[in-house]
Amino acid sequence: MRLGPIRVFALLLALSACASEPERSEGHRARMRRVAADVDDARLRAAGTDGGHWLTHGRTYDEQRYSPLAQIDAGNVHELGLRWSFETGTRRGLEATPIVVDGVLYTTGTWSVVYAIDARTGGLIWRFDPRVPRRYGAIACCDVVNRGVALYAGRVYVGTLDGRLVALDSATGELVWEVVTVDRSRAYTITGAPRVVEGKVIIGNGGADLGVRGYVSAYDAGTGALVWRTYTVPGDPSQPFESEALERAARTWSGEWWKAGGGGTAWDSFAYDPELRLLYVGTGNGSPWNRHHRSPEGGDNLYLASILALRPDTGRLVWHFQTTPGESWDFTATQHMILADLRIGGHERKVILQAPKNGFFYVLDRETGEFLSAEPYVEVTWATGVDPRTGRPIEAEDLDDREQIVVVAPSSLGGHNWQPMSFNPETGLVYVPVQEMTGAHAADPDWRHRPGFWNTGMDWGVYQYLPAPPATGALLAWDPVRQREAWRVPYAHLWNGGTLTTAGNLVFQGTADGRFVAYRANDGEKLWEAPAGSGVIAAPVTYLVDGVQFVSVMAGWGGIFPLLAGERAAASGVRSIGRVLTFALGGDAAPLEAIPAAPPPPTPDPEALTRPEDVQQGGVLYHRWCMVCHGQQAVGGGVLVDLRHASPDVPGHFSRIARSGRHLARGGPSFADHLTEEDMEMIQTYVLSRALVAAHGDVTSP
Questions:
Q1: How far is CA 590 from the centre of its chain?
Q2: DSSP state of 467
Q3: What b/e sequence results for 655-691 when a residue is b if at least 16 CB atoms lie within 10 Å of its CB, and e otherwise?
Q4: What pLDDT does 621 receive?
Q5: Which of 11, 272, 460, 592 supports an S-S bond with 61, CB 3.0-4.6 Å?
Q6: Is 73 exposed, middle or buried (0-12, 13-18, 19+ CB in 10 A)?
Q7: Quick check: 508 and 518 in contact, CB under 8 A?
Q8: Crossing angle of helices 615-625/677-696, nearest 10°?
């Protein structure tokens, strides 16, 4: 009997489940509970000297993602081989950094599912599904991803896509407590990993693209009680401000920004200095993006696109630094932050390092927030430089997008996105997954706030006329003292994985085209690579079990770029099954092949273009309502369905699918209040025209 690829995959999953039947003895659970209970404040503070484990998101509170392990080094890394792999059973993006303590690996997959895995063998110990309602897929701006857990005092903490903070028993995966952290009348989501600081679980949220007000919260790790909440942007000025810092910030806004939320969500990046007792939080873009709609009389719009230094016991703001005043390009400062001690200008300085989306690499004094330096690490055209005295970007001229299309570099995907960078104190270099791409911006003259939908204030309809710009990626080694490039490894694709660096003079990174690679840290020479069976965007970790050094990474390509970027994304190895891959010296497990994509269905009959005169207007509507998930000019990126090649019955049911919420349970849309039947017919006509162009190139289209 010959089995098709789907049945083969199902059989493999079944066999994997049988092979990894968890040990559930009470003795085993007691050991796991005891081990995880040992992760307390003292152990987290001392994580830098604990090379055998990966205790928190960036391994240490300073988020350097540097491991002192050197059993695997530049001289023997060529002997690395796959030891084991674990199948998650998902085709969506995997972005988590695993936490590994005493032989147990804790990680997350799509829809906020949590896994506890035997780090020796890859056997499943337990799995927890928070059962996120699938309707949240429609408001998750950047795929239904999750970036990992926190471990503390015998519990595993995870933020869920629908806005909950959940505490689990680390030994059994059983629910201990959960709390809703967001206002569910707004389009909030959580994709970032929590951190535990001084007995409090720190969590932010996302949703600024759809229209929310950003904040970061601290919950008691034992009880789940809210300890404090710090908003990142001011609310309705007719109401009392929550703090003096927000009252000051309100003077930098104008108009009625609060009606669309304002933005500034703290959706990913945190770091902590226990000596200074400062918690660092990166904040996001404005809501809406376009500043002319958001704050029509101008202003810096604090604290968008900023680094905030907070007191961890109260959430009080100590200092702030804004990387992009008056942010209008989706240039978030939620990118990974690293704390380091560097000798600058002849003096030892405690610094914070960040390469935010806007293209400049920043070095700040982390005690005071003093600006030290900033230089472009990718091509930058939206600004001509940074004022060396104030740190304020010097914006280029002629950037008003109300009367013209403005093209800038970097694009809204940023010179560096969420994928973590790492710092090696021995080489003095920061290893950044960078990308080079321009982006087009045009204000939507008819914009109004639409709750629950994208509220950028941008005219996405212009994208039907623009060719996809060239886009490349690179692994960049950056010297933060000299503020210059040390070396660079170019990639044909962008959206590559986060980095890990070790005392073995190594840098590890996964790539968009399905490889896991080790480079020599001091000069970038490639020393080893292995097939990952999928594109990789997550960052690797390394740890010891029974005296053996392992390197683990989650492989499964997804997120916002594969949704948006069409054929460039589909060509990068996105079609695969998500896995945890673990390597060790002498590992000899056979690499798992990616499951090949099924061929597209037959091209629709040209007679289906019943209203060719509606192609142009359909293109405008498509790019406003559909492009974010299904790609520019209807060219799908491989994560969600390419509408040009949908099954034959889809064109006849466009309205039913998109307006009535037929696929809401799968994360699909419900546009009944915003799109008419006639609108849907025009979108259908546009998509059919794009399908015919793809097949024949002879159908008139924009």
A1: 30
A2: P
A3: bebbbebebbeebbbbbeebbeeebbbbbbbbbbbbb
A4: 80
A5: 272
A6: middle
A7: yes
A8: 100
> What is the DSSP secondary-structure string of 312-336?
TTT--EEEEEESSTT--S---S-S-
Q: DSSP letters of 603-658?
A: PPPGGG-S-GGGHHHHHHHHHHHTHHHH-GGG---SSS--GGG--TTSGGGHHHHH
Beta-strand relationship, 66-67 and 499-502: parallel
CA separation for the pair 49, 64 (Å, rounded): 13
The residues that are catalytic are 330
Residue 363 host element (H or E): strand 360-365
Residue 333's closest CA among 317, 320, 316, 342?
320
Give the pLDDT confidence score for residue 585 in this predicted structure: 98
Cβ-contact 645, 691 below 8 angstroms: yes
Interior angle at CA 438, CA 514 and CA 441, nearest 5: 125
Looking at residue 560, its pLDDT comes to 67
Q: What is the spatial distance between Cα 334 and Cα 277, in angstroms, rounded to a whole number?
A: 20
pLDDT number for residue 5: 37
User: How far is Cα 25 from Cα 395, in angstroms, rounded to an integer?
Assistant: 63
Are residues 85 and 579 in contact, defined by beta-carbon separation less than 8 angstroms?
yes
Instruction: Indicate the helix (H) or strand (E) that contains 6.
Output: helix 5-19
Q: What is the DSSP letter of 213?
A: B
- What per-residue confidence (pLDDT) applies to 511? 95
Which amino acid belongs to residue 347?
H
Angstrom distance (rounded) from CA 35 to CA 31: 6
- Both tokens of 17, joined, read 């489940």
Given the structure tokens 């927030």, which residue do they identify? 369
- Buried b / exposed e along 41-52 (16+ C-beta atoms within 10 A): eeebeebeebbb
**Residues in contact with 12: Cβ distance below 8 Å, sequence separation at least 6, in sequence order:** 87
- What is the amino acid identity at position 240? P
Regions of the chain with pLDDT less than 50:
1-23, 573-574, 698-702
Closest CA to 151 of 194, 207, 184: 194
Classify the C-alpha dihedral 266-442-417-394 as positive or negative: negative
- Give the span between the Cα atoms of 432 and 563, in whole angstroms: 23
Q: What H or E segment, with its residue span, contains residue 31? A: helix 26-37
Total Cβ atoms within 10 A of residue 244: 10
Tell which residue, 225, 372, 249, 360, has the closest CA to residue 303.
Answer: 249
**Whole-number Cα distances in Å, 619 to 462, 519, 608, 628:** 9, 44, 16, 13
Query: Rounded to whole angstroms, what are the CA distances from 157 to 131, 219, 580?
Result: 15, 11, 20
Name the DSSP class of 396.
P
Phi, psi of 435 (to 5 degrees): -150, 145
| Terminal Cα-to-Cα distance of the chain (whole angstroms) | 48
Distance CA 623, CA 456 (A): 13
Q: What's the sign of the alpha-carbon dihedral 199, 200, 201, 204?
A: negative
* pLDDT digits 0-9 by tens, 459-491: 988 877 788 788 999 999 999 999 999 999 999
Closest CA to 201 of 101, 133, 143, 279: 279
